[in-house]
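Predict the 3D structure for this chain.
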Amino acid sequence: MREAFRLDDDSKTISRLAIFGRFRFRDLIAIGHEGETMNEVGMFSKDDLLQSFACVDEYAGCYFFQHKLPKVVYEYCLKSTDRKDLLVISEGISDRAFSVEVVERAPDSLSQDKTTIFDIAPNKYGFTHVLVVPNTYHGSLKGRLDGKRENLYLCIPIHRCEFSGSESEGEFKEIIQRMIPIFHWSRSVCPKIKVYFDNPGTEAGTDEAGVLMKYPTLLSEIENLNGVVSGFVEVTNYKGQVVEVLSPKKDVFTLVRNRKDEEVLTHSKLVEALNGFVLAG
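Done. Predicted structure below.
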């Protein structure tokens, strides 16, 4: 009987889940205290924020404040205007200059109906773009500040290959819970990949819709495919491009691009090709 493929739990994700145990994790980091929400909708003021945070500083036109947990501190940067409120969050890193740069480069044409991606200048974290998500995608500043969230956007510095920019709310939440620690600015690149595979040798596989998979897990499945003539691994990158990997015999792999262009490769050359495919497209 075929065993359904299961992704390994990420220990850091489990740790974060434990830390946020008193919150609903699907709301990400809904940090507001329990109580009545404010009815007034508009810009966040310093007094508003002081209802939920012990200290609020002002710097370069933004508010800076912290949410402290027993094992980690989350740094917040909020730029509030009458049209939109832009929030940047980092875990264990305080970099006000970079946070300000992120919100200052955000385009005016943001919408609560969709995600947006814009590019940023080279920086010490290696990020190339920023993903902006609507207030329904995250739970930041909920609670007493709930009435102020109508124009709130979360701005997430990313490596371009980590998100397509067209993620649904559900897919976004799955990615950040299982795949990408979005508030870790020192993280390794975590390319977004969806994998559909069948391996009769290990009796593992997925349905045709595929699953989101971490890149090291994909490489393990490629190794497991070695010499399994009737097996395959199909990989979709963040651009929606697809390649297929076959193994007609031991230590020989075939990489199929565009459903028809085949190239016979050694394992090392295959990994090199996959690196380029998932990281750059």
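The chain is about 20% helix and 30% strand.
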